[in-house]
Amino acid sequence: MIKFWKRYWQYIIFSFFCVSISAWFLEILYSLILRHRFVLPGTLLGPWCPVYGTAFLALLFFLHPKDHKIYNFMKTFVIVMIVEYLASFLSDRIFHHIIWDYHHYFFNIHGRVCLEMTLLFAIMGYLMMYFVEPILRRISIQLGNRLKIIDMVFVSLFLFDILINIFYI
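^ thats the sequence. predicted structure below, dont judge the formating
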């Protein structure tokens, strides 16, 4: 049982960073295609958007594959909305930094979340859970003992990035 939880935590860390890093690149691609300009996403210096990784982990914990797909989509919608709202709220309150502003969008809540973006993120989250998550799980199994080393590298770089942001930016 201990071996399972040790392995599960390694997978949680690994998947958090895989999703966060992938989202960072997707945000850049989104900006290049739709805004026609290069914009570095996120509030940290490294190539990660932790809000996506956090949402992914929340979905990992709260979605159950045996539940009806429509019910899981509804849960996905609520979960990504809560994570996005909390990320915006905490960034504003703790760092006095507004990450995004949805005031000009229809059906927004304090400019922190809006119907259009939440729906987009819910669709992305749903697809991630049913198509990407199984791939991540297989990769983590194939990595075997190397997964622990990869996790340590990810966590070390991430903590270093946070420290730089706290003390120098």
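The chain has five helices and two strands.
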